[in-house]
Amino acid sequence: MELARIWALTEAEKFYQGKDQLFSGKIKKHLTVTIDALDKWLNKENRTLNYGGYDIPAWLPYETGADQAAVIVKSFCLL
């Protein structure tokens, strides 16, 4: 899954809200589909994994993708 798509869609939806309501609605629809797919992909268990002596959240994408998690969090903040 291309996580940058979520960020791009949230930025585009926000940009077009006041300019083109129809297009903004289409973007929101695709954003919802993407978020629903992401919701199924993320691990929701409240547990940690130990890597190199450090406990990290098990929900991170691909278990260690903190950089990808940052894109997800930033995108959700824009909603």
Describe the structure.
The protein has a two-stranded antiparallel sheet with strand order 1-2. It is 59% helix and 10% strand. The model has no long low-confidence stretch (mean pLDDT 79). The chain has helices spanning 4-16, 21-41, 66-78; strands at 48-51, 54-57. The protein has 79 residues and is mostly helical.
Assign an overall shape. Answer: elongated
Structural class: mainly alpha
Low-pLDDT ranges: none
Largest sheet: 2 strands, antiparallel
Oligomer: single chain
- In what order do the strands lie side by side in the largest sheet? 1-2
Give the number of DSSP strands.
Answer: 2
Query: How large is the share of residues in beta strands?
Result: 5-15%
Q: End-to-end span in angstroms? A: 19 Å
**Using only CA atoms, what is the Rg?**
15 Å
**Approximate helicity band:** 55-70%
Compressed to H and E, one letter per element, the order equals: HHEEH
Overall structural domain count: 1
